[in-house]
Write a structure and sequence with these properties.
Elements lengths: L2 H81 L4 H83 L2 H13 L5 E5 L2 E2 L8 H10 L3 E2 L6 E3 L5
Helix pairs in contact: 1-2
Bound molecules: zinc ion.
């Protein structure tokens, strides 16, 4: 194994370590996001409940307006009855008064229903708000644990990145750019040992003359099947 190859494999090792740290870090971020989403979902339900409260209040005000109008009309009829002399007009007014009394009663029961709806929806808002508070309280501990894990992993990542960059500087430039290009566009493992007479990644057969060349010169060849950088392992 040439020193160049050793350095390249060392770099790949460091990159795989970095990748592993990144994967764990992404897991922590995803867990945090799940906690956020759980809160957002309940907060959205508060919004929905608040909108129905507003709608019910609007309906209640509408009914209130009608009740008020009917009351005034009734008031007017009563006064007219008071000042009128008993006769045909009085009979008509009395009939109107009775009819409107029924209408007013219906409107008033509409008002009670609207008021009940407002109260029920306000209770739902309060319930959803309590739910959010409970959820946030329950999330305090897991969030702290996640934050601790995150800062540990960030420190670990900074270390892994530094180690990786240090290794990268030691790798011969052409080999390194070949490696970086491959790593950027493909699977994370870009440098692979021959497995017998085939590529260790995709198991495409490698011609004997090329294998012999790799063995004798220590050159890093490319796989014709999957494109990885191939080397001849010392134990093969
Ligand atoms: Zn291959």
């Amino acid at each position: 194994m040439t020193p160049d190859l050793e350095k390249l494999l060392d770099l790949q090792d460091k990159d795989l370590t970095l990748l592993e740290v990144d994967t764990r870090l992404a897991g922590v971020l995803q867990e945090e996001q799940q906690l956020d989403e759980a809160v957002e979902a309940v907060e959205a339900s508060i919004g929905v409940a608040q909108r129905s409260v507003a709608e019910s209040i609007r309906r209640r005000i509408e009914v209130e307006g009608r009740v008020e109008t009917y009351r005034k009309l009734q008031e007017g009829r009563r006064k007219r009855i008071e000042v009128s002399r008993p006769g045909k007009d009085t009979v008509t007014l009395m009939a109107e008064l009775e009819l409107s009394r029924q209408v007013l009663a219906r409107e008033e029961s509409d008002w009670f229903r609207a008021q009940e709806a407002v109260q029920a929806q306000e209770a739902r808002v309060a319930e959803a708000e309590a739910h959010v508070e409970a959820l946030k309280a329950a999330q305090v501990e897991p969030r702290e644990a996640l934050a601790a894990r995150k800062s540990e992993l960030e420190a670990e990542r900074a270390e892994a990145l530094e180690a990786r960059d240090k290794c990268a500087d030691a790798v011969a430039k052409p080999l390194r750019s070949r490696y970086e290009r491959l790593r950027g566009s493909r699977a994370p493992v870009a440098v692979v040992a021959l497995a017998g007479d085939a590529c260790g990644a995709c198991f495409t057969a490698v011609p004997m003359n090329r294998r012999a060349n790799m063995r004798m010169t220590g050159v890093v060849d490319g796989c014709e099947g999957c494109g990885v950088m191939l080397y001849y392992p010392e134990t093969a």
